[in-house]
Amino acid sequence: ARAMDDGGATTTTRGAGARATCVETLDDGRIVVGDALGRVRVRAPGEDGGEGAVGRHARGPVRDVAAATRGTFVTCADDGDVIAWATPERNESGEELREIGRLTMASASAPLCAAVTRAPGVEERRVLAVGCVDGRTRVYACDFTNEGAVTFEACGVLDGHADWVRGVAFAPTRRDDAVFLATASQDRTARVWRVQTVPADGARASKDAAPFARLAAPPEPPSAVLVGRRVKTSLESLLIGHEDWVTSVAWHPDASKMVLMTASMDRSLVLWSPAGAPWTSEEAGSELWMSSTSLGEAAAVCLGYYGASFSPDGDAIMANSHGGALHQWLRDDDGSWRAIPGTSGHTMRVTCLRWDTAGRWLMSGGGDQTVRVHAPWHGDGPKGWRQIARPQVHGHDIVCFATMYDDAGTTTYVSGADEKVLRVFEAPGTFLGTVINSLGNTDPVAAAALTKAKNLSLESLGAELPALGLSNKALRGADAEDLPSDVAGLRAQAAQQEGLIEEYNARGVEAITPQALTHPPLEEVLAQATLWPETRKLYGHGNEIRAVAAHPSGDLIASASNALTAASAAIWVWSRGQNWKPLGTLSGATLTVTALEFTPRNAARDYLLAASRDRHVCLFAPSSRDAPRGEFGDDGWRLLTRFKAHDREIYAASWAPCGALFATAGRDKKVKIWRVVDDACEPACELPKFTAAPTAMAFASDPDAPLAIAIGFDDGGIEVHVASADAASWTLSSRASANDRHGAAVRAVAWRPGSSAVFASAGDDHAVHVYEHE
């Protein structure tokens, strides 16, 4: 299985079980990653397998990485140490990085960030700047020429900031044997410093200083590292303008353009330049710096930026925000900056995953309390997989949801979170219009989606979330509003209207209202203008919701909650067609039900499969064999059989497309296949015991293809197994490579409806992967 990389990450470097906290690219192209446990790893781009060369701080997290000379770099961590490392010639997995120098700082001045540059006037030496929690930036002269040991010599302390120094960066611009250093602080300011080397026998004080100051200045000895010279620092400018923490500083990569960018938690990026001349260095060294451009978001959903950087050519900017999204801007020919869609994803573990029943898009939910819709965009704008909607932004972690069948695909889903209520959401007409635009001109489902969109356009334009509420309230359309009668007309109408992105740029956040999107949306549009209205709340469970399943007929919903007793483990059944009326409960499990699934559309009879923490599987069916499919009936459903399936807790269960076979996966590291015969279950096959516990599993949904099952494991691995003709034996067909697998436990797997070639997975590493099974 290989990951489909359209519109997303092109290369993934896997960690070793800890959160990555900082990253840097060395001159030779290798990547240095620091993690929360204090480990430092060096990996080649796209390197498959292993953890690369490893170094360790005594305590993590690693706060920053800075490249020094070719093959060397510097890290700082919460243990108070700044360590210089030399990379090995080859990246053997598990090989130890060689420590070549160390600075130890007191806890009151622990390092937070570091930067290294060539010493002005002494090119073979380096200058190291370290930002600390006491608000000071410490400057050191360094000698990296001795491969055995790096020499650090303290050269000065830059005072001025009143809070933690969050970022330091040296400018590529040099003038008069000087280099400029920028520092960012939580005191809401940034500072630009001039760092230069001067002869040790030069004037002991500045020529501009008063005579008594020159007389009183003590003689400064020459630097041993800088060969008869010493470092001289001075404040160039104080940059005031941000209203919250300044989190990072970055210089324009072109040395002829003296431009500094600051990122702040006040939701803005500001470009600064001397005397407001942004693209020249004529006034470099002047004391007056002005803000030339301000970028960012006015939306309240953005809680600020943690960092920002220029592209290598300086014509693009990327920033990462508190919400987990990457924001991007491009510089146009007239010098203005234009926002473009960036990459966005979950910021905490992803717990549930479902496809649209027509296979057009993918929905995911997780611990960041959001539900997100991802789709391959084939319309105008950037192509590839994009996030096109955020139907639910909740106050509780999303645990499960079920997408319901409709003629136009999924227009309704039911979600459960860490609360006792199920919530029902209906797609607004604007979302279906967006789906039509994303399909391009070849998808045959577009006409059906347009018909549904026309029916919904008067009922709901979208939703808004009250400031202190958890329920999305519908925004109603005007009576005169309507959609064209064909897909081409819809696209023409959308092209004539002012889109959300243009409206945002022209009028500000107040102008953002839901409408069919013609381009992939920006992050602020996703967070505010793509909500789905919440139409119902379903009350009944006494504990937090754990599992929910939808019948392929589009009417029945089954749900289960956390339970410690048989009474609270009962499964509730609801009817969409009867105004979401609860039809009854199904008893059988004695502990929490962990997996619920109805038989697929092609099955000969209705069954409901329920696997639980009590290691047992329950199979329910209509009390009457003659009951129509998808109906609860007057006699309701009954328990057919209950049996012990695993020796440990059951994590997942899934039906085969035929509806006569199902599989279960448990903590005992086994996957078992079962056959339904005469209302009883018989073991059909057991896959060889795995080395890791299977935590998620799903059968491929194509009834005409050989049986295939995708399995996700608690170590992040993904495997696809294919059955023999009689399903009595299974063979490993493919396995995700080390760089395509998840970095933590897999929590959900789902095949595209009607497909045996494409499936998706979600895990505790905050990621959603879409795989192509070859």
How far the N terminus sits from the C terminus, by CA atoms, comes to 6 Å
Residue ranges: pLDDT <50 for 5 or more in a row? 1-7, 212-217, 277-284, 494-511
Task: Enumerate the strands of the largest sheet in spatial order, edge to edge or round the barrel.
Answer: 1-54-53-52
Helical segment count: 6
Radius of gyration from the alpha-carbon trace, in angstroms: 30 Å
| Largest sheet geometry | 4 strands, antiparallel
The number of distinct β-strands equals 54
What is the SS-derived class?
mainly beta
- The outline comes out as elongated
Strand portion: 35-45%
Mean pLDDT: 84
> Helix coverage percent of residues?
under 10%
Labels describing this entry:
774 residues, mainly beta, four-stranded antiparallel sheet, 6 helices, 7% helix, 45% strand, elongated, disordered N terminus
Itemize the secondary structure elements and their pairings:
Layout: E1 2-3, E2 20-25, E3 31-35, E4 39-43, E5 53-56, E6 62-67, E7 72-77, E8 81-86, E9 98-104, E10 111-119, E11 122-132, E12 137-143, E13 151-158, E14 165-175, E15 178-185, E16 189-199, H1 211-216, E17 229-240, E18 246-251, E19 260-264, E20 268-274, E21 289-296, E22 305-310, E23 316-321, E24 326-331, E25 337-340, E26 350-355, E27 362-366, E28 370-377, E29 384-393, E30 398-403, E31 412-417, E32 422-426, H2 429-439, H3 446-457, E33 462-464, E34 473-475, H4 487-496, H5 500-507, H6 523-529, E35 534-538, E36 545-550, E37 556-561, E38 571-575, E39 581-586, E40 593-598, E41 608-612, E42 616-622, E43 637-644, E44 650-655, E45 661-666, E46 671-677, E47 680-686, E48 694-699, E49 708-713, E50 718-723, E51 730-735, E52 746-751, E53 758-763, E54 768-772
Antiparallel strand pairs: 1-54, 2-3, 3-4, 4-5, 6-7, 7-8, 8-9, 10-11, 11-12, 12-13, 14-15, 15-16, 16-17, 18-19, 19-20, 20-21, 22-23, 23-24, 24-25, 26-27, 27-28, 28-29, 30-31, 31-32, 32-35, 33-34, 36-37, 37-38, 38-39, 40-41, 41-42, 42-43, 44-45, 45-46, 46-47, 48-49, 49-50, 50-51, 52-53, 53-54
Helix pairs in contact: 2-3
